[in-house]
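sanity check both lines:
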Amino acid sequence: MQSLIESGELEQVLGVMVGLCAVLMPVAIVFIVLHFRHRRSAETLATVRYLADKGMPVPADLLRSGKDDRAASDPRSMLLTSLSTLGAGVGLMIFFYTWTPMRFLWGIGALVAIVGVAQLIGLWLTRKPTPDDAGTGTG
């Protein structure tokens, strides 16, 4: 260890280690998520098989996924998601712009904010007209 410090190679070794960790960390997170999702599916399948072998009815809730399908298309949920994305983008813009050494990265926040604005526009374009809107057309 002392020879690494004296020769100046410690910085190079640490640079490689940090880069390697930065690349492998997202891979590890995805692997962990997929592992536990697979394990949950296998346990659900084992439960269904057990119930079928015993001649018991399989509850419909057991076969549904963990998320409710309606929650993804709920306008309030979509509005919250798009406003959160817009807020995160504005926050990143302010953060990078005020941090002088990284001021040139404010565009990353602008990109995230633009995605949030695009989600809001998409939500506005796909809204369902209410009965009150039916009589307000021009013409």
Notes: The helical segments are 2-7, 9-53, 60-63, 69-73, 75-98, 106-125. The mean pLDDT is 84. The radius of gyration is 26 Å.
